[in-house]
Design goal:
Elements (H helix, E strand, L loop, with lengths): L1 H66 L5 H23 L1
Keywords: Coiled coil
Protein name: Phenylalanyl-tRNA synthetase subunit beta
C-alpha cells in the first residue's frame, strides 16, 4: 500500500511539473509570437524604405544623366521609354 501511495505522489509531482512547464512554454510561445509580429512589421517597414530609396536612386541616376553625364545614358533612355509606354497604357485606358 505504501508503494502505491508513493507512486501516486510521484505521479502528482510529475503532473504538476508538466503543467508548470506547459504554462511556462505557453507564455513563452505568446511572447515569441508577439516578437515575431513586431519583427515582421519592422521588416515590412524596412522593405518599404528600401523600395523608396531605390526609386530615389534611380531618379538621381536619371537626373545625373540628363545633367550631362555620358555614363548611364542607355539606362536613362530605357527608363524614359518604359515611362512613355506606361503613359501610353494609361491614355489607352482613359480612352476606353
Amino acid at each position: 500500500m505504501g508503494n502505491t501511495l508513493e507512486a501516486i505522489h510521484l505521479l502528482e509531482k510529475t503532473l504538476q511539473n508538466l503543467l508548470s512547464n506547459y504554462e511556462f512554454l505557453k507564455k513563452e510561445n505568446t511572447i515569441l509570437l508577439q516578437n515575431n509580429q513586431v519583427l515582421q512589421q519592422q521588416l515590412l517597414e524596412k522593405e518599404q524604405i528600401l523600395i523608396t530609396q531605390k526609386k530615389e536612386f534611380d531618379l538621381l541616376k536619371i537626373a545625373k544623366t540628363i545633367e550631362g553625364s555620358s555614363s548611364n545614358t542607355k539606362d536613362t533612355k530605357l527608363k524614359i521609354n518604359s515611362l512613355i509606354k506606361e503613359i501610353d497604357k494609361c491614355i489607352i485606358q482613359l480612352q476606353e
